[in-house]
Amino acid sequence: MENVLNGGRGAAVDATGSEFRLDPATGRWALIAEGRGSRPTNLEPSGDKVANATVDGPDSFCPFCPGSESMTPRVCLIGARLTTGKTLFREAESDAEVDGLRWNVRVFENKYPMFRPADVVGSAADEQPSAAFEDDGAAALEAGALFQTATGLGKHEVIVDCDRHARGWSDFSDAEIESAFLAFRWRLRALRDSGKYAYSFIFKNVGSDAGASQGHSHCQLTATNFLPPDVRVEVERLIRYERGRKARGDELGFWDALLNAELADGSRIVAETERFVALCPFASRFPMEVAIWQKFDGFFEDAADAAVSELARLSRDLVAALERARRRFDADATSELAHNVVFRNAPSRLDGSLAEGAGLFRPRWLILPSLAKKAGYEQGSGVDVNPISPETAAERLRAVWNDPEI
Ligand SMILES: [Zn+2]
Questions:
Q1: What percent of the chain has pLDDT over 70?
Q2: Which of 147, 361, 366, 391 is the most buried (most CB within 10 A)?
Q3: Helix 305-329 with 174-194: angle, nearest 10 deg
Q4: Hey, what domains does the chain have and what are their CATH numbers?
Q5: Ligand 1 centre and the CA of 173: distance in Å?
Q6: pTM of full prediction above 0.85
Q7: How many whole angstroms from 75 Cα to the centroid of ligand 1?
Q8: Which of 225, 232, 200 has its CA nearest to residue 357?
Q9: How many Å apart are CA 137 and CA 21, to the nearest integer?
Q10: Per residue in 218-242, pLDDT tens?
Q11: 42 CA distance to ligand 1 centroid (A)?
């Protein structure tokens, strides 16, 4: 789900009715967000054709192209490319600061946010993580609470990551993809350093099958009081591994041990750069799923420019490889590859019980082609059925990676 278009600059952010609700039996969260059902789109319901914008160049119908700035809400961050090739980023307190600036990246508030904006809460206490988020309501359930809800607080922003009407990253130049990733780091760092949010991450929807409502390349960022249970569980598992590692006297921590084992095996590796490894994960949930792991400890927000640039180019090239692999290996493919990119970030604000594991976490990027729909078994069991093994997926991707003619 996504919604990005605003009817007019300066309009009040729609903060009506989105609510986390907890299933008392399963402990699973749902976000009820009725306001997001009426979002405008310029993509046709199926396929990825842009309904009312040209493929290249500014178009008055595209709210994300240069010249349409008045159609989007207030800018939070703008990136302007200098003649030196570098991008200058500026946090913006008002539109007046950035009006008329030639930009190559724009970050602004979503017109239809999934969460109640933290800056209208007005109380630091309200911005604390909900107690229910910390234990999936288990303590309150024990006290008899059957209908638990929590307000999602925080930011939901749109990142227009290219000033051209490009469809996705595979069309980006080196300078464009590097500017995009530098903007991600800049914005995530500012949100983390604000100390107001439990979890921030970036995601990208490309194509209507992947949930996109606009044809112009863009990402979204959420920074909220909601810590996804998956992330909490991951930290808990890292702590367990670390405890066992110390008991066994093993030298390598979880990520280095896993990376070494994958590199030694090689069957799931797609590409390797100085600082990163791209691979199809051992237990891939989706066909042709690709993950980018870093070889070093540390968080994306603190990564050096050179590492961000390397990651950016690798991400772009992997999306391009996935598109080429689809054309090469899927004779029935009739439309451009729809896909999501998801940044699996470390929790940015931790209570004491989780702090122990924070340093064990390594952020990573996931590229998830939209090639399979959830069917009955997946819905009933919670386990995804993947019709393409990661070993086959990696073999196909290596074939196109190593042969530019494909
Ligand atoms: Zn556009």
A1: 84
A2: 361
A3: 120
A4: 18-229 (3.30.428.10), 230-401 (3.30.428.10)
A5: 16
A6: yes
A7: 17
A8: 232
A9: 10
A10: 999 999 888 899 998 999 999 999 9
A11: 10
